Amino acid sequence: MTGHSHREANAAAPEGPLAGVKVIDLTSVMMGPYATMILGDYGADVIKVESPDGDVMRYAAPMRHPRMGAMYLQGNRNKRSIALDLKKAGGRAALLRLAASADVFVHNVRPAAMARPKLGADDLLAVNPRLVYASLHGFGEQGPYAGRPAYDDLIQGLTALPALTGKITGEPRYSPATMADRIVGLNATHAILAALFHRERTGEGQAIEIPMFETMAQFVLGDHMAGRSFEPPIGPPGYSRLLSPDRRPYQTSDGYVCALVYSDKQWSAFFRLIGLENAADRDPRLNSITARTRNYDFVYEWFSKVMKTRTTAEWLQFFNEADIPHAPLHDLDGLIDDPHLAAVGLIRSIAHPSEGMLRVAGPAATWSKTPPSVRTHPPRLGEHGEEILREAGFTDEEIAALEVEGALIEPANTDHNPSV
Predict the structure, then answer these.
(1) Mean pLDDT of 108-114
(2) Contact 149, 138 (CB under 8 A)
(3) pLDDT digits (tens, 9 = 90+) for 335-376
(4) pLDDT tier at 412 (50, 70, 90 boundaries)?
(5) Exposed, middle or buried by CB within 10 Å (0-12, 13-18, 19+), for 117?
(6) What CATH superfamily classification does 4-219+364-416 receive?
(7) What CATH number is given for 250-328 in this structure?
(8) Does residue 9 surpass a pLDDT of 60?
(9) Cα distances (angstroms) measured from residue 266 to each of 298, 316, 389
(10) What pairing do the DSSP bridges indicate for beta strands 250-251 and 256-259?
(11) Quick one: angle between helices 161-169 and 212-224, nearest 10?
């Protein structure tokens, strides 16, 4: 591969375990970009193919400059951008040429929209039989919901997450995180890696479908099948510990604290502290793990009342001395400024040519041989278009023809204004 200008400035960064793997990334919003960002962190050359308007998350405020919103910046490092109009014949042909030398092609476009320009799995595998073609859909193609639009909120609702919250709080609410997008994105990443492993063994590419609904259903039901795990059912669904109304950060006399008294040893230490060391002095529902797991609502309610009798500092000191799992209740600023995250270097600083210094949460795992890395900034729309095409063998004349046709979109002048 060429593209020296992209790589030389970051020559000191480790290449990562996927160095040399080329990914054509036709995804947008959050689920797909999160998956391909992880592949990029692992060293893959991720080519982000955007529409003339760009990924919709570019427009999500806050931002310093147009089309460089914070949500986009947090999900698209270690990628290069080319803006192609796939409705133009030249745009589609350019994409096929890029895919011909790629290892992975990933998209989150509805199947019918990929079939119209003949960019489906069969079309691309005919061009490149070694290709791993990954489709991130809302719903599996074999079911009655196939082809429906899907977003994080809708998939959360379908997989009962807001309803479960409603059982506890009295009102159904979505999770304040893009839960479905990120969980499905993680599943897409490991599916792509497994398919690459299969290809290394056999030389065969293949098509993979990663559906949001089914993936999240598996995630939720792993906790909550409960009595319906058995045929016939021996009780209702729902893991009672997770649904107990008093399973929450505990209010102390002056704040909140998170704690989980779990093992018999931990409970014994807790009982000693509050003067209930003698089992005869306690409610029998507290006296064994079997009794406690059968009476979660009572246990959590009782524990919540006890926690209000002392200060946060007193509880944190005791839990630390008694080796009881605990943590302070962070808000977002507390999380970002957490001293442990600072010590391990999770939040990295990136110098961006137009956006100044950025802070992003980098890869969390540590590797002894081929560590992931944050090597390059999230790209401006179409920033690397000509570079990517030249690497694929396009001549200057062919590139100029794509520009004239409107199939290749050059970076907008507004994207080049430096902020520092």
Answers:
(1) 93
(2) yes
(3) 999 999 999 999 999 999 999 999 999 999 999 999 999 999
(4) low
(5) middle
(6) Crotonobetainyl-coa:carnitine coa-transferase; domain 1 (3.40.50.10540)
(7) 3.30.1540.10
(8) no
(9) 18, 14, 62
(10) antiparallel
(11) 40
CB 248 within 8 A of CB 239: no
Dist CA 121 CA 132 (whole Å): 9
Instruction: Quote the pLDDT of residue 15.
Output: 82
Among residues 283, 407, 381, which one has the least CA distance to residue 80? 381
Q: If phi over 0 gives left and psi between -120 and 50 gives alpha, with beta otherwise, what is residue 373?
A: beta
Task: Specify the amino acid at residue 92.
Answer: R
Residues making up the chain, counted from first to last: 420
Confidence of residue 13 (pLDDT cuts 50, 70, 90): low
Paired residues of 23 in beta bridges: 46, 104
How many secondary structure helices (H) and strands (E) does the chain include?
19, 12
Cβ within 8 Å of residue 338, ≥6 positions away = 330
Count CA atoms within 13 Å of residue 310 on its CB side.
Answer: 14
What stretch of H or E contains 370? none
Place of tokens 């962070």: 330
Query: Residues 45-64: pLDDT tens digits?
Result: 999 999 999 999 999 999 99
Q: Using CA atoms, how far apart are residues 97 and 286, in angstroms rounded to an integer?
A: 67
Neighbours of 92 (CB within 10 A): 17
pLDDT value at position 420? 30
pLDDT at 10 over 80: no
With a cut of 90, say whether residue 136 has pLDDT above it: yes
* Topology agreement, domain 4-219+364-416 and domain 250-328: no
pLDDT tops 50 at residue 11: no
- Where would I find the H helices in 79-134? 89-100, 111-115, 121-127
**Structural domain boundaries in the chain:** 4-219+364-416, 250-328
Give buried/exposed letters for 299-331 (b at 16+ CB in 10 A, else e): bbebbeeebeebebeebbebbeebebebeeeee
